[in-house]
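User: My instructor asked us to take a sequence, write out its structure as tokens, and then describe one feature of it. I'm not sure where to start. Here is the sequence I was given:
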Amino acid sequence: MTTVAERVERLRSLPAPAPAVPARVTALVATYNRCPFGAGAGFAENPLVLSVTTLLTADSEVEVVIVDDGSTDATEAVVGRLRSQWPTRIRVVRTSLHRGSAHARNTALSLARTPVVLLLDDDLVLQPGFLQPAIWQLARLRQQDPRTAALTLPYYGRAASPYATAAGDDFGRLDLDDGYFTTNFDRLPPSDQLDELGLLLPVLTTMVSGFCLFAADALTAIGGFPDLSEWRTSYSDHLLVSAELAERGFQVRHAPDPRLGAIHLKFGAVGRYPARAGADWVTRLGYSFDALIASAAIPRLDTGCRIDDEEFAEEMIGLFFACYAARSRTGGRNWACRVHRDYVDQGTSYTPAYTVVPQRADRAAQWRRGLLRGARQAIADRAQLSDQVLDQVRAACADTGEDLAAVLQQEGR
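Assistant: Let's start with the prediction itself. The structure tokens for your sequence are:
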């Protein structure tokens, strides 16, 4: 039986896919405190520098809009040095206050001058030749179905290649009524069927990601990225964008070909990320894969959306509840009950970025705080559905045996 590693090796051995006519694209890079190593000797080690330089060297047709979201580290000086190296291909906006990734991304989107934009996190390492084939796939999909608004690209948490296979229907699934989603953007599909450019066929999904090509007009039509400035993370932004696209009849696809993939450094997170093979392309770029991962794994807060584990759990619970409860009569309740069972009762974390699981009483308190904050957010987003949201809070508390009064006491209900 062919292994995942053997499948990846075979795909990488194929001729590099290259569309006949290159297309222009604007990359949207929101950044916050991703330059701890300064603009001097450590310049090249900064995650932002790794992302921008590997992107610009990967493709000559990309323009990068960097929005510095009020960073307090060396970002301003680092971005200045980057722009001096690439004066015609980098534009920079700096905000005086830290207003969150949505504001930064929307600012970058407003400055885009191309019909297609690339969203990427500021701690990705990109491989050569990935962008034009991906743009070609999106253009081809939009020719076949103009409702196609986005194409997610593979990215691997502290890895350079996929490590497993996903079922064909288990890429980027968002079920608002069930209060459930999957990503699996770091996996291969079951089949190695290729398109006419020699890439793995895209698969239909219902989720976008932080590494994604968008039709700029579709992203603008939904109002861009959602305002989550009341939260310290933007952990549900991909759910919210996905839901808004679906509400307006747009479709999303995923391009699973590993030749289009990127390393997600997960900068500043400790987490449980096992070492992965398949880093040859990183070495050819002149980087040490092990050194990149070792640097990224040093714990850091106040960089990107990194916060401590306790607050992270609360925000994850609340943000997802807000998304589901405001868009479904059952999704918020189902999510709240599921996360109570898995996390509160069983101590199971949904993310490898989470390092220490607290005692049950603390987990229950996180659940109650998250549920309350999520309810407030859902009602703020869709005040006309306040009864629907609060009904789901009451039902979740009844299902889990939690004290409703403890959850709603600050609401006076």
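For the description part of your assignment, you could build on this observation: The two ends are 60 Å apart (CA to CA). Try explaining in your own words what that tells you about the chain.
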